[in-house]
Amino acid sequence: MSSAGPAELVRACSDIRGLYGAAACSIARVTPEGDALRFVASDGAGATEIVGVRMGLGRGIAGFVALSGQPLAVGDVTRDARFARDVAESTDYVPAALLAVPLVDEAGDVTGVLSVLDPVRDDGASHLAGRSGTAAELAVLSVLGARLSVVLTATEREVGLATLAGDDELLAAIATLAAHRDRDAVRATIVGLARIVEEG
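RE: above sequence
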């Protein structure tokens, strides 16, 4: 597996990819001009190829999420007209399924997108299509994305993320996952994000 981007963002991608047992995880930021997304960090399949790629806001599933501000779970990308196959093919890895959530700043503006490619359950099932628990998977990723926004903006360092390791609401959401993901793994991921903030 490869990785690319700033060390702290790669670590976040790696932690989240491991949590979901995914093939890859990436972070794209909205450009200063506000008209495009640029992939700035990734871990897993196609990581070195995707970092630096720029595409118009609204293009691809990540672009849709950035434009709409809505999280999205796609169980079969071949059935979704929004999927930018050419971009995926340019990385030499075309996912079958993905999760994508917006990264939102304090003002409520979308600043980027967090994507998880081909998440798998603990039983080895590889697709999101037709399985229960997808809403919970997306909800948890949205929470992690919100925490990652803190890492990206570095505006709430004094709040810290370590307390989230004991966040009952988040851990309760984890318990509903169809994949029965280990709470300790989720806790470790959140603590990892906290550490990035503290070290930043």
